[in-house]
Known about the structure:
The chain is of the alpha+beta class. Helix content is 30%, strand content 22%. It has three helices and three strands. The protein has a three-stranded antiparallel beta sheet. The mean pLDDT is 94.
Amino acid sequence: xxxxxxxxxxxxxxxxxxxxxxxxxxxxxxxxxxxxxxxxxxxxxxxxxxxxxxxxxxxxxxxxxxxxxxxxxxxxxxxxxxxxxxxxxxxx
Length: 92
């Protein structure tokens, strides 16, 4: 959800990347910039064990095109997560 909202904010550079929750957490501004560009291009954000080991999420921004006032996500254990199958329903 964080990346889905952050992708449409002007102050994304203000994010503190110094605290990593897992070894998969984004830790460099270039990584974050790449992820946020991907969210803007595809309208959906993916999270693979970045916040909690063993869990993944698919999230989409809520708002008019090019803006996010909120986001919605579906999260599940990684062994049951079907990212591709959930992308379209989450975006809807």
